[in-house]
């Protein structure tokens, strides 16, 4: 079709390609023990009862002073929840459990090396460690309520200990994912204005003891170049009393935590009673372009929301052993490893390493040994485990009652493997859709109430009212068969309060687009723009199609990258698929498809053509890839997301740009060689 005949994008076209999956129902055994089984919940949390409905969540936590105003909108769209309340997050996650549960395991720490012993830290021990470290932060580091502290640490118990110690004092922690570079850490230190960096000497990843402290040196150098100073670098040791970094200790700046802690042995710090709307932490979003955004999360609203959703969507009971494989350096880890589960007095598993070390049976051995019954991970990890150990779960005697998937849309094929093989057809799956900004879940099935539908996240969770708008601001209704921009009609307590130091960017990015009146103090005028494309089926379930900018437009047909990838995954040899747009004179853009095969399947023309056929068959010729590139691995971020930006650059023969945040930069060279021929 000549260029000038390319039709305008129509959301309608995307929809027809999706095939509705059948429902899967929770077992009666699951329902019998579930925390939430009463359908009334949707009525209780309807917009008619908004915002008062969220009192139910606020009442799951302990307040020093009860709040007087549920939602204050006077500074819209910077919402204030539970105004007048005084609270402490550290108290709620630790102290209040001591009376009845002090000897219960709070954290099962699983080192990556299998011959190192699992450490079981009780709530009492956690209490002691958090108090001692809080005393150190207060007296030795001189920190006071409202100060920011950057924590750049791996997955070890000292990470939640540091976070909870900050929370105890009302310090605002900014945890930077341990896999990030010193430079990325520096950017976040500068933006947050932290004067103290908490780090670690070394940690294990894929069997190797990595030097982590060297990143702190790079970070501090960079921070100083930008004219900002760091007072102290506090260094935990992977092996107490042994320094496992090649870097030297800089006198007067670097301090080994374990040496100084000796001075604070047995010291107790009263939790600071801070106001509900005081910030608990900053979490920077790892945007691919632009300055990272420091999402500022509150204390009271956030804690209430993650406690509520952990209880009702994750179905966490105090007697559960809960394992979320995410890294605490991401929002998932903050909300659903640390603050949610610990506020409910669960036992959490904290695993240092990668899921496939030393082999793909590792997660299932851990689950068997610790009798984990709630499991939480992301599609990328599920695909990885399915790729290299499809039969592994069957070898181990563990039983999950509940599993979560989070972070990206899950292809129905992968969902079914997760359900049948990992979950042994016993566990429910909650496909939870949300964002760093949102603090907690937006959409998911309530596990004992709604059946599951592979590839769909589900309806809005209680109290969340999604709405889909088209590009002109017109509502797209359920079952209409069109996709659009998914927004949330109402504020909720877990939502971030602003972007740290940049209110204009907060309003501009998330609220300006569909705001009905910029001067309004009425929340109804301020729908929250998530930036995702989605469609709503007749049953009220949402299918998330990816970021709005992940959409490929071929000859005016809007194709979700995910639907093409899902179709590719129908071919049994395919482990992972990623689609990127390639500029095309005629069609605007055409899809290029990158494929990683399951081990034992050598690349062949025959497989490539079967993949192309599968796509043509399930979507249509329009989606047929220009080229199927079979690669040994996808370029991935350290959190495991496929970097489509990099693949798109390669396909379009453009500069790849910064690859320092990749977990496997080598594959870029490999793919470049392949695509440049
Ligand atoms: O595009 C959506 C996708 O991940 C984005 C948020 O990423 P981040 O802030 O890093 O938070 C990840 C953990 C919450 C969303 O805008 N996303 C997240 N969960 C899902 C998802 N896409 C589809 N299905 C999900 N369950």
Note the main attributes of this structure.
23% strand, binds adenosine-5'-monophosphate-propyl ester, disordered N terminus, seven-stranded mixed β-sheet, 20 helices, alpha/beta
The averaged pLDDT comes out at 92
Based on CA inertia axes, which overall geometry fits? globular
The description of the largest β-sheet is: 8 strands, mixed
Number of helices: 20
Tell me the helix content: 25-40%
Beta-strand fraction estimate = 15-25%
Bound molecules: adenosine-5'-monophosphate-propyl ester
Notes on the protein architecture:
With 677 residues, this protein is an alpha/beta fold. The chain is 29% helix and 23% strand. The protein is built from 20 helices and 31 strands. The strands form 8 sheets. An 8-stranded mixed sheet has the order 12-11-8-6-7-14-15-24, with helices on both faces. A hairpin with a 2-residue loop joins strand 27 and strand 28 (557-560). Helix 5 packs across helix 7 and helix 6 crosses helix 7. The longest helix has 18 residues, at 123-140. Residues 1-16 have low confidence and may be disordered. Bound molecules: adenosine-5'-monophosphate-propyl ester (PRX). Adenosine-5'-monophosphate-propyl ester (PRX) is lined by residues 285, 331-332, 406-409, 431-436, 457, 530-532, 544, 546-547.
């Amino acid at each position: 079709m000549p260029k000038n005949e390319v039709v305008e994008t129509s959301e309608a076209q995307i929809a027809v390609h999706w095939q509705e999956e059948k429902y899967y129902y929770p077992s009666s055994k699951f329902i019998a023990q579930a925390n939430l089984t009463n359908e009334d919940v949707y009525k209780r949390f309807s917009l008619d009862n908004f915002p008062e409905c969220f009192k139910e969540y606020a009442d799951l936590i302990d307040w020093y002073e009860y709040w007087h105003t549920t939602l204050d909108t006077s500074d819209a769209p910077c919402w204030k929840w539970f105004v007048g309340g005084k609270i402490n997050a550290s108290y709620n996650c630790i102290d209040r459990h001591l009376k009845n549960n002090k000897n219960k395991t709070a954290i099962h720490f699983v080192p990556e090396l299998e011959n190192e012993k699992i450490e079981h830290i009780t709530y009492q021990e956690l209490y002691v460690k958090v108090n001692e470290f809080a005393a150190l932060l207060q007296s030795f580091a001189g920190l006071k309520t409202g100060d920011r502290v950057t924590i750049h640490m791996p997955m070890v118990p000292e990470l939640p200990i540091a976070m909870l110690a900050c929370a105890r004092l009302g310090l605002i922690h900014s945890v930077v994912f341990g896999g990030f570079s010193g430079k990325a850490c520096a950017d976040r230190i500068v933006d947050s204005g932290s004067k103290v960096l908490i780090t670690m000497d070394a940690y294990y990843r894929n069997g190797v003891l990595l030097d982590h402290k060297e990143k702190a040196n790079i970070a501090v150098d960079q921070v100083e170049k930008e004219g900002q100073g760091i007072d102290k670098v506090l260094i935990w040791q992977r092996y107490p009393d042994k320094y496992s970094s090649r870097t030297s200790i800089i006198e007067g700046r670097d301090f080994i935590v374990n040496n100084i802690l000796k001075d604070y042995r047995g010291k107790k710090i009263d939790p600071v009673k801070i106001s509900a709307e005081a910030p608990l932490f900053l979490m920077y979003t790892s945007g691919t372009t632009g300055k990272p955004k420091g999402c500022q999360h509150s204390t009271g609203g956030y804690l209430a929301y993650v406690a509520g959703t952990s209880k009702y969507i994750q179905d966490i009971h105090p007697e559960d052993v809960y394992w979320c494989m995410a890294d605490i350096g991401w929002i998932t880890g903050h909300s659903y490893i640390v603050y949610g589960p610990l506020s409910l007095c669960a036992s959490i598993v904290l695993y240092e390493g990668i899921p496939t070390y030393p082999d793909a049976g590792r997660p299932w051995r851990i689950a068997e040994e610790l009798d984990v019954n709630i499991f939480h991970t992301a599609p990328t990890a599920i695909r990885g485990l399915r790729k290299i150990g499809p039969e592994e779960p069957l070898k181990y005697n563990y039983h999950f009652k509940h599993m979560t998937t989070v972070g990206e849309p899950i292809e129905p094929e992968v969902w079914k493997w997760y359900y049948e093989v990992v979950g042994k057809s016993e566990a429910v799956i909650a496909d939870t859709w949300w964002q760093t900004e949102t603090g907690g879940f937006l959409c998911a099935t309530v596990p004992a109430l709604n059946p599951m539908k592979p590839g769909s996240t589900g309806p809005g969770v209680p109290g969340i009212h999604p709405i889909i708008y088209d590009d002109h601001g017109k509502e797209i209704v359920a079952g209409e068969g069109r996709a659009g921009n998914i927004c949330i009609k109402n504020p909720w307590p877990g939502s971030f309060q602003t972007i740290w130091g940049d209110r204009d960017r907060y309003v501009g990015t998330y609220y300006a687009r569909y705001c009905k009146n910029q001067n309004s103090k009425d929340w109804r005028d301020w729908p929250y723009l998530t930036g995702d494309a989605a469609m709503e089926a007749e049953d009220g379930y949402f299918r998330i199609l990816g970021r709005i900018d992940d959409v490929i437009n071929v000859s005016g047909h809007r194709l979700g990258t995910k639907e093409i990838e899902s179709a590719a995954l129908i071919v049994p040899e395919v482990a992972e698929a990623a689609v990127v747009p390639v500029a095309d004179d005629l069609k605007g853009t055409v899809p290029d498809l990158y494929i990683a095969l399951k081990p034992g399947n050598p690349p062949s023309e025959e497989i490539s053509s079967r993949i192309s056929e599968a796509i043509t068959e399930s979507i249509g010729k329009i989606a047929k890839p220009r080229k199927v590139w079979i690669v040994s691995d996808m370029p991935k971020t350290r959190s495991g997301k496929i970097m489509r930006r990099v693949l798109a650059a390669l396909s379009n023969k453009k500069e790849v740009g910064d690859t320092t945040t990749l977990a496997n930069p080598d594959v870029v060279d490999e793919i470049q060689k392949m695509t440049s021929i």
